[in-house]
Amino acid sequence: MDSLQYLGLLFACVAITLPLERFARVYRRPARLAATLLPVVAVFAVWDEIATVRGDWWFSARFTLRAPVLGLPVEEWLFFLVVPVCALLTYEALGPRDAR
């Protein structure tokens, strides 16, 4: 069950922020969302891969599904997507009104 904790945390982040979509309309603008996510995913994936190869960073087999994709656990790839989307939802829903 420990191997599902990382996924559970990511699911909780999505579940908590999903109602904000009503106000934020992040998912309804997929091109804009993709343009926001692609640089984040690219930079942090490269960063994580370098840190992992150097031994500066590692992933516990106990807390991951042991299903690496391009050298990183699936959960890490999901982290790169989920956390920025949750942050964007929160910012768009609760941030300054004139920024829209």
Automatic annotation (TrEMBL):
<feature type="transmembrane region" description="Helical">
    <location>
        <begin position="77"/>
        <end position="94"/>
    </location>
</feature>
<keyword id="KW-0812">Transmembrane</keyword>
<protein>
    <submittedName>
        <fullName>Lycopene cyclase domain-containing protein</fullName>
    </submittedName>
</protein>
<dbReference type="InterPro" id="IPR017825">
    <property type="entry name" value="Lycopene_cyclase_dom"/>
</dbReference>
<feature type="transmembrane region" description="Helical">
    <location>
        <begin position="6"/>
        <end position="24"/>
    </location>
</feature>
<feature type="domain" description="Lycopene cyclase">
    <location>
        <begin position="6"/>
        <end position="93"/>
    </location>
</feature>
<dbReference type="Pfam" id="PF18916">
    <property type="entry name" value="Lycopene_cyc"/>
</dbReference>
<keyword id="KW-0413">Isomerase</keyword>
<keyword id="KW-0125">Carotenoid biosynthesis</keyword>
<keyword id="KW-1133">Transmembrane helix</keyword>
<comment type="pathway">
    <text>Carotenoid biosynthesis.</text>
</comment>
<feature type="transmembrane region" description="Helical">
    <location>
        <begin position="31"/>
        <end position="47"/>
    </location>
</feature>
<keyword id="KW-0472">Membrane</keyword>
